[in-house]
Amino acid sequence: MPESLFKKRVIAVVRAIPYGRVASYGQVALLCGAPRASREVGWVLNRLEKEIEVPWWRVLNNKGEITIKGSTFSADFQRKLLQSENIVVSDDFLLSMHDYRWIPTGDEMKQFELPSDYLKTVNEKLRNY
DNA sequence: GTGATGACGTCTT
DNA sequence: CAAGACGCCATCA
Length: 129
Description:
Layout: H1 5-15, E1 23-24, H2 25-32, H3 38-46, E2 59-60, H4 75-83, H5 97-100, H6 106-109, H7 116-127
Parallel strand pairs: 1-2
Helix pairs in contact: 1-2, 2-3
The structure holds a DNA duplex.
């Protein structure tokens, strides 16, 4: 994986998450072609700074829990952003992945240019969500 | 090069 | 169900 390509992919995937929908870190990693790099997704989002417009708040862990730890933004702020998209978030920073998780269509996935043989495992994983 | 550090995921108690 | 252990891997010091 060439230098900074991973970062570009993370940004591309996160930007594809539609308004009012969310995705998990592991899911973003999966769509980046690096299925076991979930922690790195968080790492990239953590130091986004003033990058191009990226809806980073639509990414949470697989349980639907807000686990932000960066100093720039708080969990409270992330919850506000999610709520502003009509997403119901409980007081303990939890939301229903079942209700809000984004499952990309095959068409949406084309832009990620993933190898055709890899797409099989992607779809398999997405089915388990 | 080498070891440490995560906005994680999953399996095991 | 909750908490801990491990695995993971791009970056950084």
